[in-house]
Amino acid sequence: MGLMLGIDTGGTFTDAVLVDEHREVIAAAKQLTTRYDLTVGIARAIDSLPPESLSNVSLVSLSTTLTTNSVVEGKGSPVCALLIGYDERQVQNSGLAELLGPEAIVTVAGGHDAGGAEAAPLDEEAVRRAILNWRDKVSAFAISATFSVRNPRHEVRVRELVQELSRKPATCGHELASSLGAPRRAATVALNARMITHVQRLIESVEAILSARGIDAPLMIVKGDGSLINAQSALQRPVGTVLSGPAASVLGACALSGLRDAIVADMGGTTTDIAVVRNGRPELSFDGALIGGWQPMVEAVRVYSIGLGGDSEVRFSGGEGISIGPRRVVPLSLLAAEHPEVLPVLERQAKSAPHGSQLRFALRLQHDEALLARLPDDERQAWERVSVKPVDMEYATAEDRRLARALARLERKGLVIYSGFTPTDAAHVLGVSSHWSTRAAELGARIWARQMRRLYGCGTWPDGDAEGPSREVFDLVVDGISQKLIEAGLHEQNRLAAAQADKLARLLTEMVMEQRRDPSKPSLFSVQFAGDAPVVAVGGPAASYYPEVARGLRTGLYMPRFAEVANAVGAVLGEVSQRVHLTITQPTRGTFRVFAPDGPKDFPQLGEAVEYARTLAADEAATQAREAGAASVQIDFEQDENSVNNEIDGDVFFEMRLTAIAYGPPCRRTDRVAQAEPA
Question: Where in this chain does the record put each Hydantoinase/oxoprolinase N-terminal domain (predicted)?
Fold first, then answer.
């Protein structure tokens, strides 16, 4: 069978593991992610594994938090949304103006009605004008038509025109979502299009690395539901890899801990992701996972995700005081470890008057050709400047305002990232972490604390104190994680609305943390969290915070061996799975309509309609599973029927949602060779 190579590229670290046929980890490595050139970090991680074992790799599987982080951070490549048949209210409800900018949204006549009939002819001339206008300005096109899940013909035609006139990637809404709800479907397809270049760059990087090291094995990608797809499928539907990293971490955490009932908490650089596992399986969300304020229509592990990680920016927020996240910055301890020349600058800032731009250095983040091609001269010059070494923003603000403004715009576009004081730095100051520059973390804590006191009137720490402010940040992180764990537990009960769960979680967290900080204080209440399902904490920063979280919540804690690379372990443990949904309705009595991919089809009997839908869905699911890299395929069905029985009419059928699930193990090198040989 050979070995399996699991790779996880996160916002901060890239991990690699080798897993044998018994699902045991035989080697693991962790290196910094190099967002400006992913190849560097991936190569370093793979090269840290035993080289003599790499030739025996028969499967490579990749999980990533890059797509999830791009949603949380609001980053992405430039996209034009072509909306067919949308009215002004639907466009407004989609949130696309916030996501893409109002100028990148083009509405044209067309679309279908709820029965699949054409509501208006497609205005092909308007579509052509829009494509020609935007083809040199964007990385991809997002296409969404009203009721395209009932009839996708207009979306398909617009995609043909995009390919004919621009050769840019184009994503259609009906391929990503099967539910009604035009605004959310439009947001889903736009998020997908924004991620295409990110995923393409990642896949190309991995393939180049594997080829250079003589690893000839299929490359699979983890989807948000924990299943696998091959690289080509991921390029077509990258939005499916949202929550890829958390899904892989759940699989890895369960495998490493051996637990079948647990609460998996994955803490990375940008987010903390929490999932409840019962009987060895995480709960799936079929209505779309909520990520960074967006809820794309993708089936994924039900994850409670917050923008709180080791690299989250610690900042002042009006009305809240000190706040952490959701913006990711480069920890000062990491910055100085990679660029020692910044230490003298921090030493100088620690002795000078406080300024809002102190601690802030600009570094290159990623390379996006479509964005770079559109940069004005000042931003292009700033990009070239920051590509050489980090730029001190305090200096730029005082001495070169043109450079400072250009760098700020590059940061908003996702090409540049700032440094700042983070929970990782606080952990270094407190001695619970020590892998980077503790000196830079201490200087950062002192400078940051002085900024909070003198610029915002927040905090009472004495001058020169690094430990006090770091302890407060540490406690805020513990509180934030604890609140989200409690909130996840409340949601699992399905008894509270989101707003109610949030309020109750805040109250319970305050009670828990008050008891943790002063155990001697008498209390009439005692709160214990998840007595039958311990917390399994994984991810790089987890060891710094979760022992304190578990103590406060009075819950069991598992931090299994290789917990820091759980995502990479879980990446190779999934199987290929594809789900195809078809809807059957009864528009008039005695007529049963199947909404097929090529348009609606009517039948006089429900049984005939169901049999046709089962055959069609099974064939399509099996085809998708094989195209996604399954070595063999099995089919299961699910049916969700909406009907009533009354004394006058008997059984009355309204609607059925039929799902075919095709699943099987991924192709490995031996499977691929066997399939290629003639019979």
Answer: 5-164
Q: Read off the pLDDT band of 679 (50, 70, 90).
A: very low
Place of tokens 């904490």: 537
Is residue 410 within 8 Å of residue 431, measured between CB atoms?
Answer: no
Contact between residue 601 and residue 594 where contact means Cβ atoms under 8 Å apart: yes
- Using CB atoms within 10 Å of the CB of residue 590, give its burial: 0 to 12 exposed, 13 to 18 middle, 19+ buried: exposed
Residue 504 pLDDT greater than 90, yes or no? no
Cα separations in angstroms, 32 against 9, 334, 335: 9, 10, 12
Q: How far is CA 598 from CA 151, 405, 541, in A?
A: 7, 51, 49
pTM of the predicted protein model: 0.76
SS (H, E, C) 340-375: CCHHHHHHHHHHCCCCCCCCCEEEECCCCHHHHHCC
Q: CB of 601 within 8 A of CB of 593? A: yes
β-pairing, 219-222 vs 228-230, is antiparallel
Per-residue model confidence as pLDDT tens digits over 115-160: 888 899 999 999 999 999 998 888 889 999 999 888 999 999 999 9
Q: How far apart are the C-alpha atoms of 628 and 223, rounded to whole Å? A: 11
- Report the alpha-carbon distance of residue 638 to residue 100 in Å, rounded: 37
Q: How far apart are CA 280 and CA 283, in angstroms?
A: 10
What's the confidence (pLDDT) of residue 64? 78
Helix (H) / strand (E) containing 499 = helix 498-517
Gyration radius of the chain's alpha carbons: 26
pLDDT value of residue 676: 42
Condensed to tens digits (0 to 9), the pLDDT of residues 239-275 reads 677 678 778 888 898 888 888 888 898 888 877 888 8
Distance CA 521, CA 532 (A): 27
For residues 70-81, give the mean pLDDT. 70
Neighbours of 40 (CB within 10 A): 17
Which amino acid does the sequence have at 154?
H
